[in-house]
Amino acid sequence: MTDLWWQTCGEGKTHLVLLHGWGLNAAVWQGITAQLSPHFTLHLVDLPGFGRSQGYGAMKLEDMADVVLQQAPERAVWLGWSLGGLVASQVTLAAPSRVDALVTVASSPCFQANEHEGWPGIKGSVLQGFQQQLSEEFRRTVERFLALQTLGTESARQDARVLKDVVLSQPFPTPEVLNGGLAILEQVDLRAALDNLDVPFWRLYGYLDGLVPRKAAQILDSRWQRSASVVFPKAAHAPFISHPDLFCEQLLALTSGLRL
């Protein structure tokens, strides 16, 4: 039986599940867990095949969400960063009664750009290039992808080092698992599925993010008028790393009504 790596800590009555992004693991949250622990019971998870959750192969989004949901508390706020945002969104679609709120961070319901639709995102050629490079030099390819996530911020070099250290601190995903994650980013489109979401939904973005352009936030603001978005002006793809205090302050403000 393959088990997810799952750590629970914190003192708050409200449960908060934190899902990391592609190529990484739950250690990515280490800079904010101390600030959030007094307010939430935190659930830190390594997604299937990533970090300490070894023994899984490449998975479809629905299957990944199902595996995580099986070990989750009965009700929780679900927060997902980047690829983790898609997993948290799929959990919400599959089991809305178990979700107090959905929070996506530097994430998109559709990561791949579509010029015909005018939809902003990552060019398909970039994602395909990473898939090709993974078969050749997969560690260096992951490092290259991480560097893209911090471009433009004042602390870009330091933030990239934090992400690299997180990767190196735990078992490395297999090329199969990494390719499976890229396939999700390339193929999944949850825009229509999330149109009628009936749980609180907050979207957090970095103004300088090159992977999830701020234009996407504007389009979704118009499309999803029952959700709310926040853009961190000096952040890129990892606002909780570049601006941890501001990030926690905003998250606590958004969830204040859920933590009474």
Strand proportion, as a percent range, falls in: 15-25%
Strand order of the largest sheet: 1-3-2-4-5-6-7
The domain tally reads: 1
CATH architecture: 3-Layer(aba) Sandwich
Give unreliable regions as ranges. Answer: none
Query: What share of residues is helical?
Result: 25-40%
How would you characterize the largest beta sheet? 7 strands, mixed
CATH fold-level label: Rossmann fold
Give me the CATH superfamily: Alpha/Beta hydrolase fold, catalytic domain
Textual characterization of the structure:
With 260 residues, this protein is α/β, with parallel strands linked by helices. The protein has a single domain, classed as 3-Layer(aba) Sandwich (Rossmann fold), CATH 3.40.50. The protein contains ten helices and seven strands. It has helices at 33-36, 61-71, 83-94, 124-134, 138-148, 156-168, 175-187, 214-223, 239-242, 244-254, and strands at residues 5-10, 14-19, 40-46, 76-81, 99-105, 201-206, 228-232. A seven-stranded mixed β-sheet has the order 1-3-2-4-5-6-7, sandwiched between helices. The radius of gyration is 17 Å and the shape is globular. The N and C termini lie far apart (38 Å). The mean pLDDT is 94.
What's this model, at a glance?
This protein is of the alpha/beta class.
Q: What order do the helices and strands come in, and which of them pair?
A:
Elements: E1 5-10, E2 14-19, H1 33-36, E3 40-46, H2 61-71, E4 76-81, H3 83-94, E5 99-105, H4 124-134, H5 138-148, H6 156-168, H7 175-187, E6 201-206, H8 214-223, E7 228-232, H9 239-242, H10 244-254
Parallel strand pairs: 2-3, 2-4, 4-5, 5-6, 6-7
Antiparallel strand pairs: 1-3
Helix pairs in contact: 2-3, 4-7
Subcellular location: Cytoplasm
EC number: 3.1.1.85
Organism: Mangrovibacter phragmitis
